[in-house]
Amino acid sequence: MKKINHIQHAQWFRDSSPYINAHQGKTFVLHLPGKAIEHENFRNIIKDILLLHSLGIKLILVHGAAIQIDRALEQANIQNHQQGHIRITSIEVLGIAESVMGRIRFEIEAALSRGVVNAPAGIKDVFVCSGNFLKAKPIGILDGIDFLHTGHIRKVNTEAIQQQLDARAIVLISPLGFSPSGEVFNINSAEVATEVASAFPADKLVFFCKEHGIQDPKGQLINELQLDDILDSQIEDHGPLSFARQACIKNVDRCHLIGYGEDGALLEELFTRDGSGTQVTRNSYEQIRKAEATDVGGIIELIRPLEDEGILKRRPRELIEAEIERFFVISRDGMIVSCAALYPMGQDGELACLATHPDYRNGNRAERLLNAINAEAESLAYNKLIVLTTQSAHWFTERGFEEVSISTLLESQQFLYNFQRNSKLFTRVVKKSAQKE
Ligand SMILES: CC(C)(COP(=O)(O)OP(=O)(O)OC[C@H]1O[C@@H](n2cnc3c(N)ncnc32)[C@H](O)[C@@H]1OP(=O)(O)O)[C@@H](O)C(=O)NCCC(=O)NCCS
Fold first, then answer.
1. What distances in angstroms separate CA 114 from CA 110, 153, 303, 351, one per listed residue?
2. How far apart are CA 42 and CA 262, in angstroms?
3. Under CATH, to which class is 287-435 assigned?
4. Could you tell me the pTM of the whole model?
5. Mutate which of 362, 373, 398 to test ligand 1's pocket (most atoms within 8 Å of Cβ)?
6. Distances, alpha carbon 225 to alpha carbons 25, 166, 235, 335, in Å
7. Where are the domains of the chain?
8. Residue 73 — very low, low, confident or very high, per pLDDT cuts 50/70/90?
9. Residue having the nearest C-alpha atom to atom 8 of ligand 1
């Protein structure tokens, strides 16, 4: 049993390594509502936050305090007034909110400092930075109701936050903003998280929710939701999905809705293929594009296992770096899941290094790359596409390629053929745009 656990552990670690690389150096905003902070699982959330920090992810934590403020108001015998989901913040309520938020901030700072004891090796100290990062304005009077010291965000000081993140601090933001005249405004914490994430824009915005994401009408968890596919019926006023939607509209590419009561939900969401909750994406989750220098690591990670098995020809890192502009990739959440390259071969082009990560096969990714390579070959006025393959002959013949003998290659092209691998050779005339199905 112990053995199996070790194997599972090793496999989990291997599977998560592409995500570790993809997330490094990225900026994530995490929204922790008051209920999450009180939950017994909060200790584990703190440990996982520290783990993300140790992996080089830049973190901005935005905390809420709604239930703690409700309780403090009750204890102080102060009436709480709400208009819908919005609290009306009188000067008395503001005083309570300030002291409750101050206490929560210290609690989180203490938990992060305490958590260092059990944190991954390498973390000796964690610096948490809070400050007057938010400029606010009053909501004012709506439908005859004065919201007093309840406000909206006017501006996020991204520069000051960025300086702290670059200095490896975790930035902790309370949902209070300040007007230029020094007045304090109480702001909905999910709104703060949304505005802060949009102001950068952050690479991810994570909402810790009561539920583990959004469910379909049959009660099944929806793993991914694209912005355009969100139904009005799924949106609850001031619910996390409504904020995730706003954030996506304001340029945050990915928002995640995960359960705060579930141990490990954050890690599962960020480091596994299916995640633990619902990911809301701004645009198509996957992008097909020309490779850039920063993709070299991801391409190597994808093709090395295939090179080790002898399926693909070995390409040293320096070669890929030098030839990166010949590659096309499909990236998914920063991870390269599919790639292909086009090399000149006289008047023809060699389609090479076509690969899809095993977890993402059979989703037409290679087909899409073939189309992109064909379009590139057309623009370069190549006559034919040439492919050398040891294992995927049928894949190419099913797409109009025909096997030819090595002798049909021009002498200059034969020079490029690697006899040792004994690959089969296939060609297809470059399809013109008008010919494409
Ligand atoms: C070949 C490869 C790139 C296909 O990637 P993919 O993204 O899964 O491809 P697509 O989704 O576009 O196509 C999948 C279809 O091809 C079929 N297919 C996959 N590999 C195949 C193979 N070796 N021979 C025949 N058919 C194959 C699948 O069964 C599937 O068929 P279906 O749609 O009828 O179910 C992928 O299997 C791979 O990385 N293989 C190892 C590297 C390699 O051999 N590269 C080619 C040499 S350059």
1. 6, 32, 41, 54
2. 10
3. alpha beta
4. 0.69
5. 362
6. 25, 32, 12, 19
7. 2-283, 287-435
8. very high
9. 361
How far, in Å, from the CA of 288 to the mean position of ligand 1? 17
Query: How confident is the model at residue 2, as a pLDDT?
Result: 47
What residue's CA is closest to ligand 1, atom 41?
Answer: 355
Mutate to test the pocket of ligand 1, among 306, 371, 385, 392 (most ligand atoms within 8 A of CB): 392
Q: What confidence score (pLDDT) does residue 119 get?
A: 59
Domains 2-283 and 287-435 share a fold: no
Residue pLDDT, tens place only, 227-277: 878 887 788 888 999 999 999 988 898 999 999 999 999 999 999 888 899
Q: Pull the structure tokens for residue 76.
A: 């102080």
306 near 339, Cβ under 8 Å?
no
Least confident of 281-295, 307-321, 359-373, 389-403: 281-295
Nearest ligand 1 atom to alpha carbon 393: 24
Per-residue model confidence as pLDDT tens digits over 95-141? 999 999 999 999 999 999 886 666 555 567 789 999 999 999 999 88
The superfamily in CATH containing domain 2-283 is: Acetylglutamate kinase-like (3.40.1160.10)
Question: Tokens 């004065």 identify what position?
Answer: 146
> Ligand 1 center to residue 276 CA distance, Å?
29
